[in-house]
């Protein structure tokens, strides 16, 4: 499904949002992950895809990243961002992971209030966690 948003300069941006049913997503997580890491550390809220994600990533690539993200595996982020995520998990801050699945890099960001998680391609990603005040 797509939604068109018109800007003041007559440019048009198409944003595609795909929401996955939580029950199906949880079942897919269990299938993709090892049994000893079956605990979700937080809720993702509503799942949204940023610009270009629907055309670039498969559902399976996203599910692999999400399965790791909800278990506190932050993927390819640096040591400083990994620590920032661990702190944010305990203190309810924003969580950001980076993954490369089947050769495709993408980011997963969960909002502070856990109301939504957005999947982004690197060019659509927010600034690194360490560069922001938590």
Helix content: 25-40%
Poorly predicted ranges = 1-23, 29-36, 128-134
- In spatial order, strands of the major sheet run 3-6-5-4
Number of E-type strands: 6
State mean pLDDT (0 to 100 scale). Answer: 75
Shape: globular
Describe the overall structure.
With 134 residues, this protein is of the alpha+beta class. It has one domain (17-131). The protein has helices at 22-32, 53-56, 59-69, 79-91; strands at 2-6, 12-16, 46-49, 95-101, 104-110, 116-120. The longest helix has 13 residues, at 79-91. Mean pLDDT is 75; it is low at 1-23, 29-36 and 128-134.
Fill in the keyword field for this structure.
single chain, 134 residues, alpha+beta, 4 helices, 29% helix, 25% strand, disordered C terminus
What's this model, at a glance?
The protein has helices spanning 22-32, 53-56, 59-69, 79-91; strands at residues 2-6, 12-16, 46-49, 95-101, 104-110, 116-120. The protein is an alpha+beta fold.
Give the helix/strand layout.
Layout: E1 2-6, E2 12-16, H1 22-32, E3 46-49, H2 53-56, H3 59-69, H4 79-91, E4 95-101, E5 104-110, E6 116-120
Parallel strand pairs: 3-6
Antiparallel strand pairs: 1-2, 4-5, 5-6
Helix pairs in contact: 1-3
